[in-house]
Every structure is written in structure tokens, then in C-alpha cells.
Amino acid sequence: MCCDVKRRFLLLYATQKGQAKAIAEEIWQQAGAHGFEADMHCIREMDQYNLETEKDPVVIVISTTGTGDPPDTARKFVKKIQDTALPPDHFSHLHYGLLGLGDSEYTFFCNGGKTVDRRLQELGAQHFYDTGLADDCVGLELVVDPWIDGLWPALKEAFLLQKEKEGMSSDAVSSSLSAAPHVGHELNLSSEVQNLKLEDERVRSSDVLTQKLVDIHLVASTRDTEPSLVHSVPPVSQSALNIPALPPEYIEAQFQDTCGENPHLSSLISEGTMFEVPVTKAVQLTREDAIKTALLLELDIADTVFDYQPGDAFCVLCPNNVNEVEELLQILGLSDKGEHFVCIKVKQGTKKKGATHPQHIPERSTLKFILTWCLEIRAVPKKAFLRALVECTSDAGERRRLQELCSRQGASDYTRFIRDSNVCLLDLLHAFPSCKPSLNLLIEHLPKLQARSYSVSSSNLYQPGKVSFVFNIVEFPACPSRPVSRKGVCTGWLAELVATLLHPNKNTLDTKGGSSSTEKIAIFARPNNTFHLPADPSIPFLMVGPGTGISPFIGFLQHRQKLREEHPDWAFGETWLFFGCRHQDRDYLFKQLRCFLENGTLTHLKVCFSRDSSTAEVAPPKYVQDVIRLYAKEVARVLLKERGYFYICGDKKHMADGVSNAVVDILSTEMEVDKLEAMKIVAMLREAKRYLQDVWS
């Protein structure tokens, strides 16, 4: 018992959407098999732990949100440790390992974890294990799995050093450690046994599994040499598998009668105030033959206290597709229970550490309400969910394939056929028809249905009582793993909602004749603390916004136009806008930009069209980053001599990085410095909040 206590470590997680918590729970579950006890807490529960007096090793799993911020659950913690009054040896007693989660599509990759890591180091804390940075762009598991594997020997070493400092002899140390399982050999053996048994007495040996494997989906020919979602090939099909531990059940859903009312949608948001506002106008900005369909919606906020600045964003509460909800109910055999109220409780005696009632699920609401407004039924299933689905699958071949997809050996199959194919629960239930999960399991594993964020495309000074936004209708074409095409959850719903308002072939902001609507949507504010116009109107700025990335800059220009009208004596700096789209006649979203140019609000407008053919002797530039290079001297002048601002909005991977590279090249050439020095200057501009991005992947 004494040995167990001494092998305790503190496990903290800071999560935004549940990823960090799920990984922390995986660490907690594995700890016992390695002879450790994880004392797990959310990092915001500062009354449950005390780093100032913590003597045992600390493991931190932390995600990143927004454009590089720590998650909401870590705000108080970060504020506390960033207190400048803390001495440099404040955490000199602390030994920790940190796993950061992020997405390299964004500029400040893993910045939440890096911020905490850097500050702990500044306050004297020491690593007992190297920091891991997992990238959701390529798959978190590529870093998470090996990082967790390496954690156990690192903890072992940390306890050895700790005991040596306490004056224990090496013999005593060896003796105490021998009480723990032999990690390497025994874990591997345990995994292989689990692979064969999977806690299922119906499958008792590898011979039975091998025999059943022959029958994996009759639709998959024995001559198949290519893997698919439902079919594997060697070496995966012949491998002993390392699979995750079975997540403990912790939710109990009880069906009740059909009497009562569902909670108001406002109960689904934890921060801010929700407003239900009517859609007063809808315009299709692209031609029917454009590759993407862009819509502009105008909302009436006159009867609310909703406030915003150009550059802000707001969130839309959207439901899951009604047909997909009905389909899911049918597959689960719950079609007759849709209107029944469901009472959600934590299962008594659950082995899940710190099990609580999910905050995004009302204590009492109808089943349809839960599946429509609370759970992200389109979410790509995590490996822990696949592992749990194994236990709900009766066909041995289907069970084996699900095991493979959640195993280390099947990591590339998981990435290819599930993650990259945007496969969701419905797709899995169609592909593995003997899988019949319970409602409890869905509530445990499906994440919260997130509100969708959109940039404001208007100015409350220019259009009092109105707020506009622009979006492309997201399309997911069919693929082998997902034989049905789908529209985005929110954009598809919005398009259907305003179908009667849309005017075909309308590709300008001229909305005369736009009809009013009684349709309402629920929104709440999501202010942006930095992506705003310069406080001093005399400061010049450059805007780069191809496609729907132009959205916030329409608000900028509307606001600037109104300020110019109201304050003719003010000095206004020059404004540049770089806009690009595929075809000038199909998806030039805002042709009224010419009006801003003519009235002097916009000083320079530079456009490009990537798919239009040209008969010019010298082909015009196709992309905004190419256009920017043509105005290198002007860009350098505005940024360096006139201390101007640089704004980018739009696609991160295919545009924002290219623009950043162009700016680096421009500064390198114009200042006659090497690229490394130019990159440092761009970093300084970011730090000074003069190089600002509102990007998405």
C-alpha cells in the first residue's frame, strides 16, 4: 500500500472539445497496469490540487483553441501562473511532462501547451519527460500513442530519482519497483491476450478468430488485395493487435413518458447570451455554375442587445439533419421512442474516474431533442468509440475489422478510411450492420454538437439593427468509405432554411426586392479581441481575403465609409484590398467593391481569377499571394515605414501560408536581409498585433 501511494502522479487536463480529457482518461486507465496511480483533475479544479506543494510528478494534457489560445478550462490557471510577481524559483520543486494538442493548419500550433510549458520553465519547473506536441492535421495518435508509451519508463525513472534524493538505497529502490508489473513484457502479453479475448467469452482462441476472419463481409471478395473500411489485407489482417482498453460505461439513460416540454435552446450554451433573431434577407452571391455556392444572410437584431464590431464573429446554434436523426433512430430500433423523454444519470458503481453528468445533455429532454441539438452525430468516431462498438457487434468478421481500425497496427487504415473520409456513426452502422450500440454508449462517446462560428460581414454603424454574414455551402462528396454525399451540418441547414428567400443568379450586394422571412436562428456573440480596425483611422492597412475570406473586410469598408461621411475633417490612412476567386463572372462575390473604390473608402483594389483563361502575352497572377508580390515596395512601405496593419482572412492551408511566405520574401528583398531575419520581423508584427489572421482549415 505504501508503495502504491509513493507511485502516485498528478494528471491534469485542459480541454475545449473533449480531446484532451479523453487522452487523460486513457492515461488514467493505463496507469494501473504499469504500477502507477493517476490522480486526475481538470486543470480548472484548482481547489482539488496544489502545484505549489506538489511533490509527485505532474502530467499535463492541454489543447489549443481559437488562433492559439489555451482552452477555456485553462484560463484561470494560465492567468494565475502568469502573475509577474511570482519568483523565478516558484515551481523549482516541480517535475512535469506535458502533452500539447493542436493543428498545424493554424499559425500558433499547440500554443496553449507551449504557453503553459514556457511559463512553468520560467518559474523553475523541470521536465521529467520531453514535451509532446500532437497534430490533429495528420492525426493526434501519431504523437499521442508513442508519447504515452514513453511516459511509463519516464515516470519510473522520475520515481527512482525521487527516492534516491530521499536517501533510499538502490537495493530498496529495486525491491520496491519489483512489486510493480514488468511493464514492457507484461503489457505486450496483456495486449495480445486482450486482442484474442476482447473480454468476450464467445471468442476463445486465435483459431476461432482466424476462421471467422475468412467471412469478413461477403461483399469483400477473397480476391481483394486493396483494403477498405470493411476489409483488411496483410499484414494488418494477420497481426496480433494492440487495442485500447475498453472505456468504462458511466451513463444510464432511462425512457419516460411523452409529457412535458424540451429545454430552451439557451440552456445549451455555457457562456454569453443567446438571441433568437429573424433572417430578413438571403442572397446567393455566386452563379449557379460556380464550383461553390456562397450565400449572404442578413439578420435583424434591432430588438436585441446583441452588439458587435466589424471583425467580430458570432456563433449559430444549428441542429443535426432531421433525416439523419430519423435514420439513426431507425437503425437503433428506437423510432417509436423519439418523442419520449429521457432521464440521464451517472451509472452507480462506474469505474470511470470523476464520472459526471455531461453538461451538454439536459437532465430531461426527448430522445429526438438529444440527437438533434445536443450530440454531434456527424463526428468522426474516436478509437475509444470504435473499441466500445466492438462489444456491440455480433458478427465476428465485423468485430475483427473494428478491432483493427482502433488498433495501433491499423492506424493507417483508421486515418485513410475513417478520419480522412469523414466517416460518421451512421456510416459505421451501415458498414457494420451487426453493430447495435445502446443509447447510453452514444451519449458517452458522441461529442457535444458545437455551435458554428461565422465572421461578421457588416458594420452596425452602416447598417444599424442588422448583422450580415457570408458562407459557402459545404459539400462532402461521396467516397468509397461513405457512399452518400452530404452538406455541412450548419451550412446545409441554413441553405434549406432560407430556400424560399434565395434569388438565383444574384451575385451582387444589391438586395432590392429581397423579401422578409419569419424563420429565426439562435445566435450568440463571439467577440474577437484583435481582428479589428486600427483605433487610429489615419493608420493605413492592407486586407487579403479571397473567396468568402472577404467577409469581414466588407464590414471594415462599410464602417470606414460611414466614418468618412460623419467625420470629413479626420485624416484616413490608405486602404488596400487583395481579393481573388476562381471566375470573374461566376464567383466575384462583392462587385460593389467598385463603389468603395469610387467613393475613396478603398484606395487600392487588386483582384485575380485563378481559373479564368487569359490571352495576354504575360499571364496575369492567379492567386492573391502572387498579386501581393507585384506590389512589394508598397507592402513594405505600409508595414515598415508607416507602421500599418496587415489582415488575412480565409483558408489557412492553401492561402494564408502562401501569403505569409510572400510577405517574408518581400521584407527580405526590400530590407536586404535574409529570410530568417524577415521571418523574425513578421513574428514581431504578429506580436504587436499588426499582422492579424482570421483563418480556418
From TrEMBL:
Its cofactor is FMN; FAD. Coiled coil: none annotated. It catalyses: 2 cob(II)alamin + A + 2 H2O + 2 H(+) = 2 aquacob(III)alamin + AH2. CDD domains: methionine_synthase_red. Its EC number is 1.16.1.8. Residues 272-534 form the FAD-binding FR-type domain. One of its GO terms (cellular component) is cytosol. It comes from the Eukaryota. It is found in: Cytoplasm. Residues 9-152 form the Flavodoxin-like domain. It is an enzyme of class 1 (oxidoreductase). InterPro entries: CysJ-like_FAD-binding (IPR003097), FAD-bd_FR_type (IPR017927), Flavdoxin-like (IPR001094), Flavodoxin/NO_synth (IPR008254), Flavoprot_Pyr_Nucl_cyt_Rdtase (IPR001709), Flavoprotein-like_sf (IPR029039), FNR_nucleotide-bd (IPR039261), NADPH_Cyt_P450_Rdtase_alpha (IPR023173). GO terms for biological process: cobalamin metabolic process; folic acid metabolic process; homocysteine metabolic process; methionine biosynthetic process. Keywords: Amino-acid biosynthesis, Cytoplasm, FAD, Flavoprotein, FMN, Methionine biosynthesis, NADP, Oxidoreductase, Phosphoprotein, S-adenosyl-L-methionine. GO terms for molecular function: [methionine synthase] reductase (NADPH) activity; flavin adenine dinucleotide binding; FMN binding. Forms a multiprotein complex with MMACHC, MMADHC and MTR. PANTHER family: METHIONINE SYNTHASE REDUCTASE, NITRIC OXIDE SYNTHASE-RELATED. This is Methionine synthase reductase. It comes from Nyctibius grandis.
